[in-house]
Amino acid sequence: MATEAADPAKRARELREQIEYHNWRYYVLDDPEIGDAQFDALMDELRELESAHPELARPDSPTRRVGGEPVSALPKVTHREPMLSLANVRSADELRAWVQRMRAHLAREGIEDPRFEYVVEPKVDGLAISLTYEHGRFVQGATRGDGVTGEDVTHNLRTIRSIPMRIADAPALVEVRGEVYMSLSDFTALNERRAAAGESTFMNPRNAAAGTIRQLDPQLAAQRPLSFWAYQLSHAEGVAIDSHWQALAWLRERRFPVNPEIALIDDDEAVIERCEGWERERGRLDFEIDGAVVKVSDLELQRRLGAAGRDPRWAVAWKFAPTTAATKLLEIRWNVGRSGDLHPYALLEPVAVGGVRVSRATLHNEEDLLRKDIRAGEEVIVIRAGDVIPQVISPAPHVVERKRRPKPPLPPTRCPYCGTPTVKEEGAVFTRCPNRDCPERRHQLLKHFVSGGAMDIEGLGEKQLALLQERSLVRSPSDIYRLRAEDLEPLEGFGALSAAKLIAAIERSKRQPFARVLNALGIPEVGEKTARDLARRFGSIDALLSADPQQIAEVPGIGEKVASGIRRALDDEQLRALIEELRALGLRLREARAGRGGPLAGKTLVLTGTLPQLTREQAQELIEGAGGRVTSAVSAKTDLVVAGAAPGSKLQKARRLGIEVIDEEGLRRLIGE
Ligand code: IVH
After folding, report:
1. What string of DSSP letters covers 149-162?
2. What is the three-class DSSP state of 576?
3. Residue nearest to atom 19 of ligand 1 (CA)
């Protein structure tokens, strides 16, 4: 690796600075400048330096972000100033009343007719944390606790990449407060991973974050994806700012993640509109919010307003409708997945949760179901978080104490769709329907095959597939490619035009790249990303079919267990037969690969902004299919930048470096589409 630096202490300092800079670009700005390999090289060099010179190791080094030593307990921490809570308002009138109370209070202080500027912030549903920096270095982080004393969770906070370990240009003592949370996408992925491994799932992102932050072993926290938003500069002696808005800017300049949704608004009614807007659009955000926080920005006014008990007078929480509700669990039913796994779901007496009527909810898997101790016929608690599918989380508290309860639910002994006796293999998480000809299994496979990330056949949805299956026109995915317009025209909902359109869409799908075909096959554990990685590594289905598990496990992100599962699936006779049929029908079973030929051969491209017709993945596929390469950062080595709507700083950088910039149409022209 790296040769010994002349001045190891200096080199370690440089490396730490660079690494934290790139962490910031990646985790806070979501706009990385370098690729994973380059980043890893910097980390490797620093790790080597620190192990060769143990005196250089320090707790705030980026190498510690993967988790240091476990602690034996969480010591108590007394907050420098109490961490306050917030009074709630639940309507526009209550918000107006709060403003009137502030005016009345200030009038008594001799301030007549103040002009309020408000900072309106999403109230992220996580847990409040305080971070202490001494001479610019992160030294301690604590939970809110009872507001006066919290617990020291420094070891876990170090693993959150978006929390700066050092801040530049800071006074001797700085305290920052904010919310630790788990994003909805990270939460769903974590629960799916846990459910698939037979582990208990978390009730909601808040519980997942709270359970993680109080762990003694930071390695655990490092594996669970936590994030942070800074929302208060609670101590920074000598820093010249006179409003909360300026404090947020100060924090942003020091690389703290400050929520980009936060707005400065100087009109009471516009504040109400903003709060109501978030309540309507909460599903658009990738983090759960349970309300909005409205703060008077002026720090002098804040000081004059003071606090009433635990609640500051200068801020309120606008609370949204709750996202949990109690209702009756009518019945537990079971779905069959494309590989035969039985998944339980709940039929509920319809109930409004977070403004939406819910009558079904997922129950993950049977172990999770047993652990939750819910029974058909009883009241249960349902949760709906943002865009996340509704879940049943527990029995209603009062039913648990009953002497007589209905029987615990068991998976069916026969497949609910084909009647075949079900099986549960030793150590497996799911009870399965072993019948490959099960119509529901086939339906699920077909649905997956035509879906967006797979063959993406427009006009062939769940309804059409069900009809085609019912008329025995389609059994296996390959049958789709044998359909003729004459077969479709007589069917309900089809005319000559729509039949011709669908046939054309099916024909077009034959040009989908190999990675998508691989995903479409429905191999357990092979989703969109794994399919792309496998396609890139092996280049063709034949190379993959003859790979051994060790070679498959060389693909980043694929462990040994998954690799041997993939290997087993590839040996399946039916899958092999399907592959041969698809090959004969003309689907792509090898990468149209870079390097040789192609109009973009040898060219490096960068994508920025939203393209009118293509998703990022589709654009990347097009470019790679034409022999080009896509990287995430603009540098002197970039040949072309493809820019869409709302491009980021990459476009500016490209202009600065004099790199040619094209739009989607330009890209299509280059490729000869
Ligand atoms: S300000 C005096 N701002 O809400 C200021 N709190 O009920 C006190 N929270 O414990 C907090 N987002 O966990 C503030 N943008 C935000 C917030 C926020 C979430 C939570 C925080 C606090 C609770 C207050």
Report:
1. EEEB-HHHHTT-TT
2. helix
3. 123
pLDDT confidence band for 111 (50 / 70 / 90): very high
The atom number, within ligand 1, closest to the CA of 262 reads: 15
Which helix or strand (DSSP H or E) is residue 228 part of? strand 227-236
Instruction: Kindly give the distance from the C-alpha atom of residue 411 to the centroid of ligand 1, in angstroms, as a whole number.
Output: 43
What is the amino acid identity at position 50? Answer: E
pLDDT digits (tens, 9 = 90+) for 539-585: 899 999 999 999 999 887 788 888 998 999 999 999 999 999 999 99
Six token digits for residue 566: 């993939």
Q: Is the pTM of this model over 0.90?
A: no
C-alpha to C-alpha distance for 673 and 662, rounded to whole angstroms: 15
Nearest C-alpha to atom 16 of ligand 1 is from which residue?
A: 123
Residue 317 alpha carbon, nearest atom of ligand 1? 7
Kindly give the distance from the C-alpha atom of residue 89 to the centroid of ligand 1, in angstroms, as a whole number. 14
Q: What is the SS3 assignment for 99?
A: helix
Is the CA virtual torsion 56, 60, 62, 64 positive or negative?
A: positive
Residue 474: phi and psi, rounded to 5, are -135, 125
Please choose from 83, 89, 123 the residue to mutate so as to test ligand 1's pocket, defined by most ligand atoms within 8 A of CB: 123
Q: How many CA atoms lie within 13 A of 197 on its CB side?
A: 11
- pLDDT, tens only, 264-292: 999 999 999 999 999 888 878 889 898 99
Domains of the chain: 2-57 (1.10.287.610), 94-319 (3.30.470.30), 324-401 (2.40.50.140), 439-509 (1.10.150.20), 514-584 (1.10.150.20), 597-671 (3.40.50.10190)
Q: Is 76 a catalytic residue?
A: no
From the CB of 262, is ligand 1 less than 6 Å away? no
